[in-house]
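Question (not urgent): is this output format expected?
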Amino acid sequence: MKFKHIHFIINPASGKEEPVLSYINRLFIGSRVNWDISVTKKDKGAGEIARSLIGNTDLVAVYGGDGCVTAVAAALHGKSLPMAIIPGGTANVMAKELGILTDTVEALALLLKGHRIRTIDMGLVNGEPFLLRVNLGIMAAMVTEADRSLKDKIGQLAYGVTAVQTVAAAKPVDYRLKIDGQKIAASGVALTVTNSGNIGIGDFDLLPGISVTDGLLDVILMHDTDLSSLLKVAGSTLFQQESDVLEHWTCKNVTISLPKKQTYICDDAARSAKKLKIEIVPKSIRILVPAQKK
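Got this back:
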């Protein structure tokens, strides 16, 4: 597929520090592709910019982290206008999920050749779209409590440092779940409802079989944070096996009722609620990916 016009949305506060404008100019200077750039600002986010581009460009290419990518996907979901991801964040989970190279120059080159369009699912939590997952418990705390300066220094490892700090103080929460109509009472220190399997570290997935194109959500509950449980969780991710420390369900919709209002993470954004209604929206967004997944 060839694009006559590409509009770039650039988040200057993304995790990488590199001359992305120079890269874009160098790549497209000899091409027949027309292109424009918008830069996100405090009062004008990526989602707002993306909505204004519907009907005015052939491709929206977003340079930023997963939060920025999700904002653009939320604006375009259900539309025919495709988007491209130029990984510029700390974790770049969706890029890794889709096999998009995290090197900026190589990701930009994909816009000219060697690509295809893949239509993937998105989720809705209390009406808000998400690409990756919804996290509660220690999985949310490791994001909300991660130190920004530490993220700038060591990147994604900052989340691991925060996780070690939060695990010790973690207390189980009583969750009341309604999974595709079935009521389940369960207690745990972390609850994830995910559309994507990749955890942002190499090709590792949370659990085997999680797909962004199967029309299903995966609900994963972690019961304990003792050393034995943590080792089992690590092993289940490393060897892609189910574990008795984790409970795992697949569904099209789930309602989570909490004892009290609680902070959760919708992809990269912190929210709070006492009740979460989550559903899958199959074939929701069109994304540019390599013709052959790496």
